[in-house]
Each structure stands twice: as C-alpha cells, then as structure tokens.
Specification:
The complex is a heterodimer.
Chain A: E1 6-12, E2 15-21, E3 28-37, H1 39-54, E4 59-70, H2 72-87, E5 91-95, H3 99-108, E6 115-116
Parallel strand pairs in A: 3-4, 4-5, 5-6
Antiparallel strand pairs in A: 1-2, 2-3
Chain B: H1 2-19, E1 27-31, H2 35-46, E2 50-54, H3 60-66, E3 71-75, H4 82-94, E4 102-108, H5 117-124, E5 130-133, H6 137-150, E6 162-163, E7 169-174, E8 177-186, E9 190-195, E10 207-215, E11 218-231, E12 237-243, H7 254-278, H8 283-286, H9 291-294, H10 297-328
Parallel strand pairs in B: 1-2, 1-3, 3-4, 4-5
Antiparallel strand pairs in B: 6-8, 7-8, 7-10, 8-9, 9-12, 10-11, 11-12
Helix pairs in contact in B: 2-6, 2-7
Classes of the chains: A alpha/beta, B alpha/beta.
C-alpha cells in the first residue's frame, strides 16, 4: 500500500480518509476509511469525493475495515456519489465492511445499489 | 453579568442549532403507522426516541415546517396511491421550508412493493431507508431502533421528556411529614419539580425514598436522588430529581411510559390547535375531517384488495402450520 501514490489524506472530525491511486487501473482510487461517517463530517467528505471525481477518478473502492459507524446521512452521501459516477459509467465498491455497518445499509434498503466484497 | 451570560449562551445555542442534529433530539413523525409499528411505539419511546404518531398527511407539513431536521416515516400502504405518495414525498423534499426533513418509507413486506425501492432511494433521494415490515414484533423493534440510531435521531439526550400538566404531582414522607409538590416535566430517568412547601429545601445528593408520583391520576412509586436545583422565583426552586430505575413501580416504569405516550399525542393535538388559532385555514379546509369522504372508490378497492392479499397470505401460512403439525402427529 505504501508504494502506491497517495492522492488524498484528510482528517475530518472523527474520520480519517486516505486515498491512493490504483497503479493497475488509471481511473481507480482506493480510499481507506477509518472512524465514523455521520451528520457532521459527511458533507465535507462528499466534497473531497467530488474533488476526486473532478480529478478524473470514476472507480471508487472503499476499504472499510476500520469504518465503525455510518449514519443515514453518510449513506445518502454515497447515493449522491453513485448518481454522479453512474453518469460517467463509474462504480463504487466497498471492501471488508464490518457487519454492523453492512447492517445499516441492509436495514435501510440500500444494499442492492452497491458492490460489497 | 446575567445579560452577558444570556448573550453568549444564545450565541452558543444558535451555533449548535445551526449545526443541526445530532446535538438536539430529532422529532420523529410516523405517518399512518402500520399496526406493527403501533405495537412497538411504546418501546420506541422507552428507548429514548421522540416519536409521534400522525394520522393525517395533510397536516404533516405544519410539523415539518416548524421542527426542522425532523425524521418522517411514511406508511405508503395507506390512503394515497403509489404515485400520490411519490409526489407527496418529492413535494416535501422540494419545498424550501421542509427540505431538511429526513424521509423514510415503510411498507408491509407482504404487499410486495420492492419495485418502489429504486424510485424512493435513488430517484427521490430519501435517506432514512425503505423498510419492509414483517409481522415479527421483536425483530421489527430491533431493526427500527438500529435504523433510528443510524438516523442519529436521539441526539445527546437519552430519554424522552414530557411536559406535565396541572394536577401532575408527587409526594413523599420526610421527617414524619408528608410533603407535596408539582411535577414540571418527567422522563424515565427523572423529573423536574417544585415543592409546595417553600420552607423545605432539598440538598443535592439527598435520597428521597418511596416518592409517590401522580400522573393524570395514575400512581407510580420511585426512589430518587436530588441532582440539583435552580431558582425560578425569589422563593421557589426548581429541583431535578434522578430516579433509581430499579425502584420504579410498576416495574419498568410502565405508568410513566404510558403517560409520556399520552403526552406525545397531546403535543400533536395542541400544536395543531395552536396552528389553527394563528392561521386563516380551517380544519375543514385542510381536509382533516373529510379524508374518508374524499377517498375515491378506486382507492377504496385498491386498499381493500391489499388487505385481502395480506389476509390470504396469513391464511396460507396458518394452513402450512396446521399441515406441518398434522404431519408431525
């Protein structure tokens, strides 16, 4: 991971976002999430993601092993991102999602719109 | 000094309000709740969520306009057609005064409305989910609590607090004398109250055993500890008493919870009456009493067929159970 090109590192409230460029796929960004996505930080987080779209990334892979909470606002933010990326034939993939976080997606009915691995 | 404090306090609170929830407890309005939800409503309140049942979609706008960042759950199986509910939801999201409302959809899983999931979640853009209700009360409550937690509905306050009404009182024995007081507001965790005897002073940390609470004539018993007080007039003090949860009788604070649920209902009625006092619109204009008459035959038939489908499913399930039992015998 360390050898990959770092494209973003931000800490907002209780969320640390680290984004790397995927060497194998030019338009893919791998984003490591650490902490929680809630009402307070979801807007700023969305702004960072939109900046990445502007930079040309359309494949977003989120490594969520350390993401321990997501609010409905956070999921709403991912839905907005999905809407933007769909127009550009992009894709969102969530990897290593904790069960409690996956359950939030599932309980709210959003699970079928994203790829979980 | 007091003015300066008030100024800074107001600034501080404005800042917190601007941040929106989760600092403050969000109001949760459940429109036309399904029977399953009505069955778990009391438990939602017990879990500390400020939930209200609303049985008329025409009045909901008034609440959403008044209470920003509220959560609205709509049971789309009742009253309006699929298209009407969709446009109703879009209208709330598009309106300047209600656009910060967080909307969720509830539907009976047996009515098979999954085809609307995509429309609501992606096209309309609701954030509080599309929930298919199954007739398992325990599971539904568990899911609802998790969902409300994800909606950050509780804020930092852990319990729903109800404003009390005239006649809500308490008494306790201290130094062989019975003392009486008025309850100002109450939650499962404690109460704010005023003593009638102004000469008696309660000290923080003081334990008051076997207090008798009388809420709309219904009695509860509890032991509490004085948490603190503040002056409301020159002689009167407003006390905060924290309950020892293990000592509440009847067990689980059933009477207190029932009282809070009743007060939630009263809150809706009161708010609405106040609205009609200050507006030129009449209840009839809003269609509050005329909904049933306004329903089209087509809508009645649609609802009737839906109910019939549910009953048929249930009968089939019962048949299956009977057959299984017969086989095992």
């Amino acid at each position: 991971m360390n050898e990959r090109e770092l494209v973003l590192k931000e800490e907002i409230d209780n969320l640390i976002i680290t984004a790397y460029k995927n060497d194998a796929e030019a338009n893919e960004v791998i984003i490591v999430l650490d902490g929680a996505i809630d009402t307070y930080n979801s807007q700023l987080f969305e702004k960072f993601l939109n900046d990445l779209i502007k930079s040309g990334y359309i494949y977003f892979s989120f490594l969520c092993a350390k993401l321990n909470y997501i609010s409905s606002m956070g999921i709403g933010m991912f839905i907005n991102l999905l809407a933007n990326l769909t127009k550009k034939t992009g894709k969102i993939t969530f990897l290593d999602v904790q069960e409690k976080v996956y359950n939030v997606f599932n309980n709210l009915g959003f699970v079928k719109f994203f790829n979980f691995k | 000094m007091k003015i300066q404090f008030t100024f800074y306090y107001n600034l501080y609170m404005d800042e917190k309000k601007n941040q929106g929830p989760p600092y403050f407890m969000r109001k949760i309005f459940i429109l036309y709740p399904h029977t399953i939800i009505k069955g778990v409503y009391k438990e939602i309140i017990r879990n500390g969520y400020d939930a209200y049942i609303v049985e008329d979609h025409k009045i909901i706008f008034q609440f959403l306009k008044k209470y920003h960042h509220s959560i609205l759950y709509i049971n789309i199986d009742k009253f309006l057609t699929e298209e009407e509910w969709l446009s109703f939801t879009k209208k709330i999201i598009a309106h300047q005064d209600t656009k910060d409302t967080h909307i969720g959809i509830m539907t009976d899983a047996r009515l098979k409305k999954k085809h609307l999931l995509h429309k609501y979640l992606l096209d309309v853009g609701i954030t509080c989910g599309f929930i298919s209700l199954t007739p398992n009360t325990k599971k539904i409550l568990e899911v609802i609590i998790k969902i409300l937690n994800a909606n950050e509905a509780k804020g930092r306050r852990k319990f729903v607090r109800a404003q009390c009404i005239e006649g809500d009182s308490f008494n306790f024995i201290y130094n062989n004398n019975t003392h009486y007081g008025e309850i100002v507001d109450i939650s499962l965790a404690g109460m704010c109250c005023i003593l009638f005897d102004e000469t008696l002073k309660l000290i923080p940390g003081m334990v008051i055993e076997n207090m008798q609470l009388k809420l709309q004539g219904v009695i509860s018993m509890v032991t509490g500890e004085v948490y603190g007080s503040r002056e409301i007039t020159e002689k009167k003090l407003l006390y905060v008493i924290v309950f020892n949860m293990d000592t509440i009788r009847p067990k689980g604070g059933e009477n207190i919870i029932n009282y809070i649920c009743r007060r939630q209902e009263d809150f809706i009625k009161h708010d609405l009456d106040t609205y009609f006092e200050t507006t030129t619109e009449s209840k009839e204009e809003m269609g509050i009493k005329g909904d049933l008459r306004n329903k089209s035959n087509g809508l009645f038939i649609q609802e009737f067929n839906q109910e019939l489908n549910v009953i048929t499913d249930e009968l089939e399930e019962i048949d299956d159970i009977i057959n299984e039992r017969k086989e095992s015998i």
